Amino acid sequence: MNACVVVPAYNEEKRIGEVLAELVKLEIPIVVVDDGSSDETAQVAGRFNVIVARHMVNLGQGAALRTGTELAMKLGFETIMHFDADGQHDVEIIRPMLDALAKNEHDVIFASRFLGEKLVMPTYKKVILIAAKIFGRVFLQIKFTDPQSGLRAFTAAAYHSLRWRANDFRHCTEILINVARSDLRWRELPTIVRYDSYSTAKAKRPQMRMAWKMLMEALFR
Amino acid sequence: MSLFQTIIILASLGFVIRALVRCVKKQISLWLFLLWTTLWAGVVIVAIYPVIINRLADFVGVGRGVDLIIYVAIGVIVYILFKQQIRVGKVEKDLAQMVQTKAVDEAFNLVAKEKGSDKEI
Predict the structure, then answer these.
(1) ipTM surpasses cut 0.90
(2) Which of A64, A157, A206, B54 has its CA 20 to 30 A from that of A2?
């Protein structure tokens, strides 16, 4: 399978080494996009057998993923997977997701934290995600179980339909909306996301501001 | 002439002189300078002859002259903010596009170069 894993990274020098050490074991080409980090993220990534693209300035995770995806497609990869650099995502899910995509029955595969046997995450996060799920269903008409899934795999052909414009974290929801409004065939697979003090501190996002922006976009787009 | 009128006239004169200096240094265009001068000339005229604004307020149906000034000022500020927002959005979009294109091209060229030297990616 001609697949590539895209890893967006912003100031992840402490964690990206561990993540890439696990990822390279899978022997799948990896594109790391250093999103204008002020630390040694790009240098740490460069020690591994990966392709490193660098943003001159910090644009946001959505923009970094777009850069990585477009680079992967330019390099001829037909399947693209998005994977976080902070160590939250489970490497074990990559093969099943790519295998599911290889069957040609689906165009996009999402990993969902809500399909596993047990929902392991901090309570505040659980509350926010459940609220976001209801918000997404009511205002955005998206029926995915995980409203902020950042772990996804898709075919290069599907990219044109799901191409996101948001440079920041809103790309997660925008991709779900684009998929829901397109003819793309999608499926969710269960995953467990690891939350530790590092990733929790990194993931602090302006949730209310994001929700407001998404609502405005949904209403006036 | 009241103290208020004197302050308004001196401040307006100061703004116009500053705009003139910028225009001479070619930091702003002649058109912007003329627009700026016209604006402050209008402020000076209204400060000297406040009856003008009261008559105008009566004409458009607003109670007091000062109310008309506030309504017009809010309208102008909202319009300027709207235009600025559009401009900032466009600059952000262009910047993001430029940064992304550069990142993709540099990485692609590096990979192509390494492939030429048979390094596996």
Answers:
(1) no
(2) A64
